[in-house]
Design brief:
5-stranded parallel sheet, Rossmann fold, 6-stranded parallel sheet, homotetramer, alpha/beta, globular, 19 helices
């Protein structure tokens, strides 16, 4: 490699950004920036990270104001698109003829929460959120059937996706997963509209405007539902939720250390309702999917970018200084950016960082033990004293070795944030991800649960 | 390079397509094809060529019908998008407050011809087409001021782009070219909406639906126009057109051979009104911009892909067997695909291929003579007998050496198509492109005409 | 796509060149050119095409001579590398201990013909050429066993590669193809040295210098050979060659048209010994592998770049004006660049272009008939009159419809070159490539012949 | 972005590696690994990082041993190449005719130290190392003239590069920097042989073998030197070195905190002669170039990869457990991987990590102050207690606030390693890099010092 200025940054960033470019002409730098922002915020397709770099010579050039048209530096309104009448009519017909409609929301529905609720009420459909739109519909809404997800998908006759790709979490929309379904797809970006299964119809328009147009057009006539199906799934869902609430989380692993799930019970009992939850790690994320509940939730996402637990929490705390922020981190993932606790202190970011300190990259350690002949290499850590480290950097820090001390420690952390709560947890608590094997990618890439159905559909031996 | 199957076709094609992919999983091949077609036709951004390749093993695999969902093989309607009310209101306000509005159409307006005319009538705006939407508005419509293009752009106070990028042909929208203009941008794809200059407002919706919404909202109140400006430019335009029509094209070059412009006069006098015109070449294209008129017109486009003259004509003839097709080709460009005359004969494609046979790559030859010290290398050809070649391949063929014989030859060609009319033309007819120099790219890449204004704006020495 | 100057030519060319770059700084243009030439000729790895583009503004800039160091414009000697002593000793030991040594030459041995012969004589090894080094060793040398290629490879205990990749033509060096062999690899570029099978030793040095060093070091002691093996394969080879020579090529296909193989007999009887042969096409290439013999031979290569038959012949004729050049072309492939006959006439390139005119893309036609249900689409042509076309363009042209007329026509063509000999051939002559299916790529990509062995080795069902 | 398994890792890594590939076929995984290692170690061009990824399904597949040829898993000897006789003769002639020869070594000479010394003695040439081959020739060798680098380069009439690119640190070999020089280039990889200036001759062979061949061929006749030049530069070099040694480093910055240069004096007085030095940071690196001396030295290199200070030191300590390792880090750079102190403790890596804790990204802070109007954003830190953090993680930790305490602290650190010595330094000590401006890239990319000469040569205003 050559010196810093010879590195092809754009080539490196292009595969993980929506748009990557070098701005080389000084008097065009503001225009380039305007475009990079426009693309990041979704003015030219799916929103997402964009990359723009300004060479030092461009940065050092002074451009006279008259070369910069006002339209480059004026704030632009978000795109709003009205659904096409004929497609609304098609969608209404599809909904009216459905017996077992199911709505699935995703990223593109995030700002359409109220319209989604209105539509669910009007259309009398069942509802599933997905990781990227958690908390969009109140969990006690009667349409919510998250605990019977697989049954809902396999039995629906109409699946309405709202700003949601049919990705691996939805079995790529395969008939193996949705054997009886026709699709109605609604999104304001094509990437969430046409992937894997085509909608009849597909509506490329703002999700909220479209749902409200549908609700209005449906009026009092949403068609005849299969009431037995709707109620059966709702009841089953309620039953499972109730059972989950009355079953206490395990407190200890086999080695006597704290069970990671105990952390989430303690959080639930300590936080304000509007708190922001963040989860980071491998095993930890698997546990958090079950145990960590919050209206506002962030994690590493499908990309699996470990290390976000501390910086996301710092950012959330600074963006919402009046809300509690609790970040739960596996110790391996924590190590990536633990040093940003210094940043939290420097900027007064009042987050609580909980470390599930089981002295291991435990999915990998378990994988080596079970699948690779038991040779453990590079996957064990120490029960390092992260609380002491936090204190050294000027934050509050406590170590917890007994489940009974968790709530007190968390509550003191919230009061004295930024704070690190260093919890000695058990390596013997095996997460569902660890059991499946980390990153296992079957031939056709859907997750295990769907894959068995998929293989069956294709007539293969599973 | 390795063998055929190791060539990275996708890498090669990706830079010149909207989407390029290898379909590797047999039972997903139809879905992949559905997506490639969807993207080519604009379902996920600007339409354009897409590339999909199927490895031989995929081609040879038989997939059972039950693995192919119906939605993959159902024809999809074209996207239609309704403009957002608030933006329509903003646009109406912008139009009403304009004194000197100018409409410029492009690719994305191609199917909106009637709506454009209605809007021009309602809004009382001037109009410019561009190469990619030639013939959209009848040339005798009072809004058309193509002959005073530069003045219209430099004086307009509102520029309304319809499915049109602000590319080099529009000076990249620079204030050097549009010193007084605010922009109103309308397109159904972001790539024709936000480049270079941002609109206030920008409307991402179907161009025809948007224009009709604007026409309706404007009603009888389109605002006060600067009548002197409108009429002044219209009069000047008419004057230039009239002058052009009464000035006969030159018949001979200095060397006594036929002047290329004489070809276009002969075409005009020989073809049916709905004929399809195609132009291919370097110099030839420069002459054709002035002399070749047709409601349906194709050329190599901005990409400059020489060699399209014969195959485009074959395709046009087969697509519209009842219309006349005349393809005018520089002899250099003709050589690329002259062999496809065999294809025309084989498939009965009744096109007339006119060759402007000046025995040279004349822009380059001229360039070498004038700019590179007069060493002529590889830019001269022979007056090869393309008519005889056509006859050898089973087509009609005539050579023309006198301008007076052109019309007769073209008419016989139309009757006996496929036909090659091989016209011996003059190397001494220097086109405007040859004078400018082929492919000259100034620092900031606009064409010469705009560039001088641009340099002046930036305070540079020209 | 944008205008010509916005096309990312380097991105398009990069996948098929060794090096692709835009030279943007005028006073560095000569240095860039020097580097592009150096890389093309092998100064920085495997030689091959490189791409360098000069923007028009660079072309138009005049650079003062003092900015161009002499070393950029001085011709450089070809790289010569002496083998390392210790590796020569290792190689000698390997050769001495071999019972059944086999030498395989490739691209990198092209200029080492004499040294190869000396080495074969000294080491008493058998020899196989490959397509890319045809004619390197005289076909009557006693080491040559090309007619028993498969047996030689499967029985050798030492394989010595000379500037040769172990690509699909050599079964990727798999133990399935070479079950008993150790490898000794010699090349002056790493890409022909380490692929697929590692040598013991590997010698990165000039092939001729290395072979001469080995011959010298072996002296009179090349080790003990398995004489039965050597002689057995030599005898079998001779027997097959003799049989081939006494078996006349078929003269007609089932439809009564000329059999393509008849063309090669006629060539053999008409040309001078040092003639240059060129083959282009699909089926045609398959036939030419068997029938076309020449000391200097060119074809489309592994890349399969159809259309090279005419331009390669033009170039060969101009490079060697005193040698006969005969190019044999399938009619499909001929169509790509048939127009360059005009170039041959213009430049006086005295090549003979023979067209095997069977009015079809016959491999594909056959493939459609046999493997895709018999629907023939786009794979038939006409028996177009290519001879007449040649005459129209000023070349000599003859059509041949009877095998007995071939020799006379070829001889007249050689006298009156440039000339096209248009031979009406049979679609019913099925080549071995057509039988295998064009481009069929088994799972692991070796050709059919090896693949069966490969599948057996892996214990798969074939 | 999609899920983890959809990320195009190879695309991301390709721009910064020599080779990047996914190994998809289980029984080829070992061969792929063999190739990746071969390329990393220089078997196919310049050595450097390569990337190979194994999908989980490949990792989980068991391949039978018989499918893995021995040659894939046998260790290979490093490439050794003997120089070509004729080129050695040319080089000898060039050396004999030189009056003022200068040898410059680089990466590719690293293992040729003894041969370089022998050659310098034989050829009576002057010598310059470069960052990548520091310590190759003992600093007291009479050929070493590092303190008069610019004069040596501008006056030499023969420049002999040994495994060294002519990159920005050598003014790209421009005549502006080397106005009188002819080049003789020696390298075992083409990338260090042909860039920017071509050698006469260029020898692609092992550097040590080549130098020894040259020394032998020169014998007692190395030609006539310009003794005045040799001695003049040697004397000037000695004078500057002596002056440097007698001038004590500043102890304090203007704000009363420790001057970073004081750290290097303290190191010099505390370490064993064979200690390993590592430097990381921006400003810090600039200071280290002047003050940090060691026979074995590592830093972030031209790539400028901040954060290497801790992990490089951990690795060096584990690789050389019997040598002292001292890593000096700017506090900004330290933050990237400070957490790896935990790794040092876990693995018993006995390095001493010195932090120059000036509470700032000081080059950027200075840049903002001086060049961007004094708005300081995101470039100040805290005097965080890194010593306490180290103690929290189980390492030895001390803070030093007085220059007089530095030596004691470093010595205690060496005894109790791993250890962090947290030195409160001054923001007012402006490094030469900070003065020049970080990352400033002039038009033609050479560093400032050369650039002025370069601009003068081209007749530009500087």
């Amino acid at each position: 490699m050559g010196p810093l200025q010879d590195i092809p940054h754009v080539d490196i960033l292009a595969p993980v950004t929506r748009y990557a470019r070098t701005a080389r002409v000084p008097d065009q730098a503001i225009r380039e920036l305007d475009e990079a922002i426009a693309r990041a915020t979704g003015d030219a397709g799916e929103p997402g990270p964009t990359y723009i770099e300004f060479p030092t010579d461009v940065l050092r050039t002074t451009v006279t104001a008259n070369l910069i048209p006002q339209d480059w530096i004026t704030a632009k309104p978000a795109r709003r698109n009205i659904p096409y009448d004929a497609l609304v009519a098609d969608a209404v017909a599809a909904i009216r003829s459905a017996k077992r409609p199911l709505v699935v929301s995703g990223r593109g529905a995030r700002k359409a929460g109220d319209a989604v609720v209105r539509f669910l009420d009007t259309a009398d459909a069942l509802y599933l959120d997905t990781q990227e739109s958690r908390g969009l519909v109140p969990s006690d809404h009667k349409a919510v059937v998250g605990a019977v997800r697989a049954a809902a998908m396999s039995q629906a006759d109409l699946v309405i996706t709202l700003g949601r790709k049919l990705d691996y979490q939805l079995g790529f929309g395969s008939p193996a997963v949705f054997p009886d379904a026709r699709f109605l797809r609604i999104a304001d970006t094509a990437s969430e509209l046409i992937d894997n299964r085509r909608g009849a119809p597909e509506i490329l328009a703002s999700v909220d405007l479209t749902l409200d147009a549908l609700s209005k057009a449906l009026g009092n006539n949403a068609g005849q539902r299969d009431a037995g199906w709707l109620n059966g799934l709702r009841d089953k869902h309620q039953e499972r939720i109730a059972k989950g609430k009355t079953t206490p989380a395990p407190q200890f692993g086999a080695d006597g250390n704290i069970h990671p799930l105990a952390i989430f019970d303690a959080i639930r009992n300590s936080v304000a309702e509007d708190y922001i939850a963040i989860a980071d790690g491998g095993d930890l994320l698997s546990f958090a999917r079950v145990g960590l509940e919050a209206g506002t939730y962030l994690d590493a996402g499908a990309f699996g970018c470990l290390g976000i637990g501390v910086p996301f929490a710092v950012a959330a705390s600074l963006a919402f200084p009046d809300r509690q922020v609790v970040s739960v981190n596996g110790d391996g993932a924590f190590g990536f950016n633990a040093m940003e606790i210094d940043t939290a202190v420097r900027h007064g970011a009042k987050a609580v960082f909980i470390v599930s300190n089981n002295a291991a990259w435990n999915i990998e350690r378990y994988d080596q033990e079970v699948n690779y002949g038991g040779r453990i290499v590079g996957t064990t850590l120490r029960h390092s004293d992260y609380a002491a480290m936090a204190r050294a950097l000027g934050a509050h820090g406590e170590r917890v070795e007994n489940p009974g001390d968790l709530e007190g420690a968390i509550q003191r952390g919230l009061k004295n944030a930024p704070a690190v709560i260093d919890v000695i947890t058990s390596q013997d608590a095996v997460s569902s991800d660890a059991q499946k094997g980390l990153g296992f990618v079957p031939d056709y890439q859907p997750l295990i649960a769907w894959d068995e159905a998929e293989r069956k559909r294709r007539g293969e031996r599973s």
